[in-house]
Design brief:
This protein is of the alpha+beta class. The chain is built from 1 helix and 3 strands; from the N terminus they run βββα. Strands 1-2-3 form a 3-stranded antiparallel β-sheet, with no helix packed on it.
Length: about 70
């Protein structure tokens, strides 16, 4: 599913556009699941990336491996 700013999926609502890059668009988002809060009661926030469909799968895999190393 492709998300756009302000749209919701069953699980995620995008709230802010972080940036546009060579591989896709990154949004700040939060999960719409009850209880997904930090120790202060605030909703956890996430970065959600929409990857452009024209990107080579090898580039996507490399980026995923780098992100996994960074955690």
């Amino acid at each position: 599913e492709i998300l756009r700013l302000g749209e919701r999926s069953e699980e995620v609502k995008t709230i802010i556009l972080f940036g546009l890059g060579s591989y896709g668009v990154v949004f700040k988002a939060y999960r719409q699941i009850e209880g997904d809060v930090d120790e202060n009661g605030k909703k956890h926030q996430y970065a959600v990336k929409r990857i452009f469909p024209t990107i080579n799968a090898a580039f996507i895999l490399i980026e995923m491996l780098i992100l996994k190393l960074l955690k």
